[in-house]
Amino acid sequence: MIINIKILQADMSFSNMPNILVIEDNAWMQEILMQYLSDHYTVKLCSDGLDAFMELQKGYLPDIIVTDINVPRLNGLELIQQLKTGIFFSSIPVIVLSGDDTGETRVKCLEAGADDYVIKPFNPQELHLRIKAVLRRMGKSF
Q1: Predicted model pTM
Q2: Which range marks the domain in which residue 105 is found?
Q3: 9 has pLDDT over 80
Q4: Does residue 1 form part of some domain?
Q5: Residue 54: pLDDT over 90
Q6: Cα distance between residue 106 and residue 96, in whole Å
Q7: Cα 9 from Cα 140, distance rounded (Å)
Q8: Per-residue confidence at 15, pLDDT binned at 50, 70, 90?
Q9: Please, which contacts does 121-129 make with residues 24 or more away whose CB atoms are closer than 8 Å?
Q10: 30: how many CB neighbours lie within 10 A of its CB?
């Protein structure tokens, strides 16, 4: 009986983890992000922006999106623009995770509706805290 209760509690805590959609085309970076984020979030990975957008259209609604800018088929900036101009996905917060450190790119992403911009290489703990901060501002506490 006690074993069943512990299993139930473990299942309940897992279901309370925020859902995060990560869009990254680099396999090595995907592995790093999965390693660090899966302790705190239920992570779904997409290799390009078009696949990510199709997942959203199929009904997958993450609590937050983390996207690279330089991904194929629908880059991060284009994805943000698509999300923020529509009705259904405009409330999903987006954090850009990119190696592009130019001020112009950061400004474009933030103007398009990104909630934060993190430069690669990044500190995994800082990324986690930034995700938590954005979720907290959105009224989502887990």
Answers
A1: 0.88
A2: 17-137
A3: no
A4: no
A5: yes
A6: 9
A7: 21
A8: low
A9: 122/97, 124/32, 124/36, 127/36, 127/37, 127/66, 127/95, 127/97, 128/36, 128/37, 128/40
A10: 18
